[in-house]
Design goal:
It contains five helices and seven strands. By secondary structure, it is an alpha/beta fold. Helix 2 links the parallel strand 1 and strand 2. Helix 2 crosses helix 5. 41% of the residues are buried. It binds iron/sulfur cluster (SF4).
């Protein structure tokens, strides 16, 4: 089957949109008008959370349909999606990344490691949880959180 024909016949593969997630929209998020640019920062993760973040933006979960879009630079970003416990080597780069973002900006801690260091708590190379290094606005628990939960957290930020 030719590619164009396949595109024409496949149709949508995205999951039906679940109901809008419960929970307050963070106050800063209301200023962003329902559309956010997202920069991912791996501060020391095992890569499990990154795999789920990649899935959250694939055609099935399709976070972009709720107004969240990945960007390559913190200077273009409104939201930092941060994974992993923060290692000693990543503490200062994380601070600088968040400082490079415009205002208003939000930090989303993705995964148990980002929230409380998870499996890596007490490790010699661990500086602390994300909130020990930069202010955190939204938490997504889980090891790793499922893509739908990451999408739900982003929907809380976009309000869509
Ligand atoms: S929360 Fe789990 S999957 Fe995510 S970085 Fe930690 S150990 Fe890996």
């Amino acid at each position: 089957m030719g590619l164009l024909r396949k595109i024409r016949t496949t149709g949508r593969v995205a999951e039906p949109a679940p109901p809008r997630p419960q929970g307050d929209v963070p106050a800063k998020a209301r200023e962003l008008g329902g559309s956010v640019q997202v920069r991912c920062v791996d501060a020391g993760s095992c890569n499990g959370c990154e795999i789920e973040i990649a899935a959250a933006f694939n055609p099935v979960y399709d976070a972009e349909r709720y107004g969240a879009r990945l960007v390559a630079s913190p200077r273009h970003a409104d939201v930092a999606l941060v994974t992993g416990p923060v290692t000693r080597n990543m503490a200062e780069p994380l601070r600088r990344t968040v400082a490079a973002m415009g205002e208003p900006r939000l930090v989303v801690a993705v995964g148990d490691c980002a929230i409380n260091c998870g499996e890596f708590a007490g490790g010699y190379g661990v500086e602390g949880a994300v909130a020990d290094v930069v202010p955190v606005d939204v938490q997504v628990p889980g090891c790793p959180p499922e893509p739908g939960e990451i999408v739900a957290a982003l929907r809380r930020v976009t309000g869509r």
